[in-house]
Design a protein that fits this description.
3-stranded mixed β-sheet, 354 residues
Length: 354
């Protein structure tokens, strides 16, 4: 049997807090507020770092003295398109197999994003003029382009003979069954991040504690997965954001992890004892071919400050060699793998039924 279907979904009027996003903070500090002279603390003197001498956060807010005022709004949406197929062959002549495959066409929306607000002197609250550009830049959600699952069962041929030699061989080779599952497909998407040891808080970068900056891409980082465990992407393709950011340096879900290609196998032998009794011996081999699939990597680059972009967690030394203190995944530097799926695991089972 073969089945081919279009499967799609359009969600609208979604509540932000229930869709992987956040509530809308109507008391958010507007972009650039911490830079303005009326919001500086005169007891802190002057500083060359923007926002370093600003008042405490709650004194910067439109409703001064209050913290976040959160509102759960229905301004979020997402749309998914896919082609889903399945092919199954029923057990016949000692064999069965089936394949399920999904082709993800697109998955876009604004779920998980912030509402960027502007507060007027008269108390009015409006959406920032660059909200549409922000949502368009970050519209791509985690679309898995390919998802495949296949399974099969093979009842291995039996030896049938009337002579003693043939029967002896049959006792050994008869009643074996081989089965397996293939799991393959695209991995989830991820993004690169940054941190500063000093002078890199949101107030310094965007002039608001409520809105953050984004990492800056200055080259091609690659697709997000490589055979080199110490360089899953091109770490030289990014740099940290600077002061006076508007948070529009880059979008989301730009890189993708390593594709899955795992085969699980099982071989079983049924030994008939008569009278409806039998013993089954079964050996399962999970990740039978010991396939390495990297599932995690160090995605946050650490700098000294926005004006001192020395990389504090570099995976490599100045001469290009791997830092000997970062050879193990638990000590991974920026760009290196720090997690992988489990390697081959065997399980032996004996079962008696009657």
């Amino acid at each position: 049997s073969l089945d081919v279907s279009y499967v799609g979904n359009h969600g609208y009027n979604r509540l932000g807090a229930f869709q992987g996003g956040t509530t809308v903070n109507v008391n958010a500090v507007d972009f650039g507020t911490a830079y303005l002279s009326p919001y500086q603390d005169p007891t802190l003197g002057t500083s060359a770092v923007p926002g370093a001498t600003s008042l405490p956060d709650n004194a910067l807010r439109p409703y001064r003295g209050f913290g976040n005022i959160n509102q759960n709004t229905t301004e979020f949406w997402d749309t998914y398109h896919s082609i889903q197929t399945s092919f199954n062959r029923r057990f016949r002549n000692g064999a069965h197999f089936g394949v399920n495959y999904t082709l993800g066409l697109s998955f876009v929306g604004n779920t998980g994003l912030q509402k960027r607000l502007v507060h007027g002197a008269d108390g009015s609250i409006s959406t920032s003029p660059d909200q549409a550009a922000y949502e368009n830049l970050n519209k791509n959600l985690d679309n898995r382009r390919h998802v495949l699952r296949a399974n099969w069962v093979w009842d291995m041929p039996d030896v049938k003979s009337e002579n003693s030699a043939g029967r002896a061989i049959g006792y050994i080779v008869n009643d074996w069954q081989l089965s397996g599952v293939l799991t393959a497909g695209s991995a989830s998407h991820y993004d690169l991040g940054y941190s500063y040891n000093s002078n890199g808080a949101n107030k310094n970068l965007t002039g608001s504690p409520d809105y953050g900056a984004r990492i800056v891409y200055v080259g091609d980082p690659g697709n997000g997965c490589s055979d080199n465990q110490y360089a899953q992407f091109n770490m030289n393709a990014v740099t940290g954001p600077g002061f006076y950011s508007n948070g529009l340096e880059s979008g989301r879900n730009l890189l993708q992890g390593c594709a899955d290609k795992t085969v699980d196998l099982a071989i079983a032998r049924n030994i008939r004892l008569g009278g409806g009794r039998q013993v089954q011996l079964r050996l399962d081999a999970f990740n039978a071919f010991n396939t390495v699939v990297i599932t995690g990597r160090q995605t946050t680059i650490q700098y000294n400050s926005p004006t001192d972009l020395f990389i504090r967690n570099n995976q490599f030394l100045a001469d290009g060699s791997v830092d000997p203190t970062k050879l193990q995944p638990k000590n991974a530097g920026f760009g290196a793998a720090n997690g992988a799926q489990a390697l081959r695991n065997l399980q032996l089972t004996a079962r008696f039924s009657f």
